[in-house]
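Training component of the fellowship. As part of building independent skills, the fellow (R.M.) carried out the full modelling exercise for a liganded target. The chosen ligand was NAP. The inputs are recorded below so that the supervisory panel can assess the work.
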Amino acid sequence: MIYPRVALIGLGLIASSMAHAMRAQGLAGEIVGYAKSPETRAVALGLFCDRVTDSAAEAVKGADLVVLAVPVGAMGAIAAEIAPHLAAGATVTDVGSVKQAVVDAVAPNMPKGVHFIPGHPLAGTEYSGPRSGFATLFQNRWWLLTPSPGTDGDALARLRSLLVGMGANVEDMAVDHHDLVLAVVSHTPHLIAYTMVGVADHMRRVSSQEVIKYSASGFRDFTRIAASDPTMWRDVFLTNKDAVLDILGRFTEELFVLQRAIRMGDGDHLHAYFTRTRAIRQGIIEAGQDTAAPDFGRSAPPADKA
Ligand code: NAP
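Fellow's submitted model of the complex:
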């Protein structure tokens, strides 16, 4: 066992997956939970928490590890609420998809003697809520930590061993670099998927049900991404604004170049471009981050996920 008592604040996809994984591997003693709604707390108590509380402050009392697993926009208020109740020597981490905004909101609230180590698991599904978690979500997925130069080495090593115990590959990264990398690999692609589904939705009104009826794998993939939690993604774009706008600007430039190639009938340009992008996909498969299966490696979710 790595932490005798873990407090999970927010009991959705990520927190419930952590709880299942910690249980499966015997990494935590007691798992205490808090989420905004009584309904979520009741489900969590039935499925993966030993105890739930009526406030975040109550949940963190005596905890060795506190995990902030709420939308990024909610982290600051939670940090302010729990700060006076954190045990001396406790570690506080978070799982937010953006790091600079979380560091700015949480770090100033942390009392002396408490170790705040921001983190982000690069693992997820389009499902959310306390029923959506499963123990293998983090298996062979990256978990990025953004410690500061002053972070306590023992606290960092202990957190790292928990994450490795849940199956993750852990790497440290600078906060601003994290936000730029994630804007490229996750945030902007999500925005593009939301846009494409929005376009198709608009078209559906003028071309009956054809978009749904004939949706081929490319569009189906977009709809899967665009089904992700609206609150989480609203907060991602509001808090990683600069990096996303930077990447979106580059994206728009590339799109115009491709648009021009199509208009001018420049097949050589299109072929060369698609050959380069195909090589990137191959690199992702070779790095073990996806499979070469025809469905992009995304088999149907297990039956127990709502
Ligand atoms: P989720 O399934 O939607 O769950 C969010 C949880 O936070 C719910 O239990 C919700 O409680 C609770 N919550 C929201 N506002 C709260 C507040 N003010 N006080 C207390 N609890 C509050 O979300 P998730 O997917 O687990 O995401 C959690 C965090 O992980 C986010 O910061 C997200 O950026 C990050 N993340 C997500 C993914 C992903 O793919 N989903 C991947 C990596 C990281 P109620 O149920 O009562 O509303």
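The panel noted the following from the submitted structure. Strands lie at 3-9, 28-34, 51-52, 65-68, 91-94, 115-117, 119-121, 142-145, 169-172. The CA atoms of residues 291 and 297 lie 5 Å apart.
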